[in-house]
Task: inverse folding
């Protein structure tokens, strides 16, 4: 046997046969804002797994989600398209009422091909395991996955994902996993000092905190801004925005502490998953870890995430490892978008013949991606009824270089300079009115809503209850 044929045999291919497509692990750490992770410069030690993965691959420092919540962002990740093109968002012009038996949202366009469909057509085995119930198969986001299931918590989700790694099947694998530990409610982890210090405060909460404290099924206390203030029916986060609830600065610090501690828990879940991935002999395969959106902790007097387009909710992490295909230990500052992962994974799987325009392999090889960075968020009539002035407008986010314009459908455009103000706290449009107006015009011209794809779904009681617990249904 010559050296060449030996190498071909070792690589599992013989001469003319193409190499076996890689197994792909795609993980969404739901609700993780990049700047709250140690690997992105945060002071808390909460992202060891991402740091280790970054050493084996590429960390993207500047990643923008195209939407501000689970539904539009996951649909973008699965289709490579922004929310105004794929349809899965919240269009306030159609039904947005939720009741005991039905839930309505605009759905993902059923004609659009998804990552799972495209890889399945190329011979992949496809499985999706998620904790977030918006990924329940009957809602349509996981279309194309042969196996798609949701679970009550991340422990169950990780266990199911690990089981998928043990299946004896010759086909390449696409394994999608969504973990939800960072999503509210924020919990008190006993073993994490910066979280445990707040236990006594939760047990005897001050007036600002009392409406948000809830007792989990196992008896532990947590903090949830979805909880209503007294008998008002108004969520605590919206009451605070409207000035009906006073959350002091130390209250915001408490929320951040508990969130940071939930990120530690998330990192431990990721460790179990990556250990199993490597333990199953897949250390040379493709792994991508990202998030669908971030979370507010007081910026613009907002909490949680929903219907706006500032950095705390759009800035997400992204680490991609593909040993042998992309370099190890690289940190890239090029601005990229969450949905760029879609064409990138198609390219790494070998199912496209030409390099896609938005493949992340371009910046990895030194070629900048062209075009603006964009996002969109739609107003919420249902929630706007709760808090005066909040979520009554929809927004276009359009970034060129370090300048971002935020264009409300009805209000006055805002302008931000990310180089001086990365979290977008200081509107400089009054000092640069012509620049803001010109960018706003380009935003309106290029971010164009498609027709509504509204749907009204009958859901079972359990799904309704889970969506209610997550704050999607009042
Ligand atoms: Zn989410």
Result:
């Amino acid at each position: 046997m010559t050296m060449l044929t030996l190498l071909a045999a070792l690589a599992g291919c013989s001469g003319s046969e193409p190499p076996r497509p890689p197994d792909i692990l795609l993980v969404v750490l739901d609700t993780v804002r990049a700047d709250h992770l140690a690997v992105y410069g945060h002071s808390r030690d909460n992202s060891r797994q991402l740091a280790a993965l970054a050493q084996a691959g590429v960390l993207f420092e500047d990643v923008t989600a195209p939407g501000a919540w689970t539904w539009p962002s996951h649909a973008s990740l699965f289709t490579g398209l922004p929310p105004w093109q794929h349809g899965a968002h919240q269009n306030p012009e159609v039904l947005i009422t939720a009741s005991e038996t039905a839930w309505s949202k605009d759905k993902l366009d059923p004609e659009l091909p998804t990552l799972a469909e495209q890889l399945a057509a190329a011979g992949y085995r496809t499985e999706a395991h998620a904790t977030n119930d918006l990924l329940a198969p009957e809602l349509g986001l996981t279309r194309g996955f042969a196996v798609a299931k949701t679970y009550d918590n991340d422990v169950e989700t990780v266990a199911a994902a690990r089981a998928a790694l043990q299946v004896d099947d010759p086909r390449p694998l696409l394994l999608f996993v969504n973990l939800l530990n960072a999503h509210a409610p924020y919990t008190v982890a006993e073993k994490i000092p910066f979280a445990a210090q707040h236990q006594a405060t939760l047990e005897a909460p001050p007036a600002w905190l009392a409406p948000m404290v809830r007792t989990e099924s196992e008896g532990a206390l947590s903090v949830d801004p979805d909880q209503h203030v007294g008998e008002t029916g108004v969520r605590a986060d919206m009451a605070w925005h409207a000035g009906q609830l006073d959350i002091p600065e130390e209250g915001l610090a408490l929320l951040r502490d508990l969130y940071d501690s939930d990120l530690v828990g998330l990192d431990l879940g990721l460790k179990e998953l990556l250990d199993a991935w490597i333990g199953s002999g897949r250390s040379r395969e493709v792994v991508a870890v990202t998030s669908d959106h971030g979370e507010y902790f007081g910026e613009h007097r907002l909490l949680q995430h929903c219907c706006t387009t500032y950095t705390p909710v759009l800035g997400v992490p992204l680490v991609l490892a593909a040993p042998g295909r992309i370099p190890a230990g690289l940190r890239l500052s090029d601005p990229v978008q969450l949905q760029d992962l879609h064409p990138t994974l198609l390219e790494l799987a070998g199912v496209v013949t030409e390099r896609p325009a938005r493949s992340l392999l371009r910046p990895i090889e030194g070629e900048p991606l062209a075009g603006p960075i964009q996002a969109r968020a739609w107003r919420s009539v249902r929630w706007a009824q709760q808090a005066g002035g909040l979520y009554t407008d929809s927004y276009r986010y359009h970034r060129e270089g370090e300048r971002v314009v935020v264009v409300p459908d009805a209000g006055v455009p805002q302008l931000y300079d990310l180089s001086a103000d990365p979290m977008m706290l200081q509107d400089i449009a009054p000092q640069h009115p012509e620049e803001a107006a010109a960018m706003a015009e380009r935003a309106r011209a290029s971010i164009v809503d498609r027709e509504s794809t509204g749907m009204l779904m009958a859901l079972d009681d359990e799904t309704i209850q889970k969506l209610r617990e997550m704050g999607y249904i009042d």
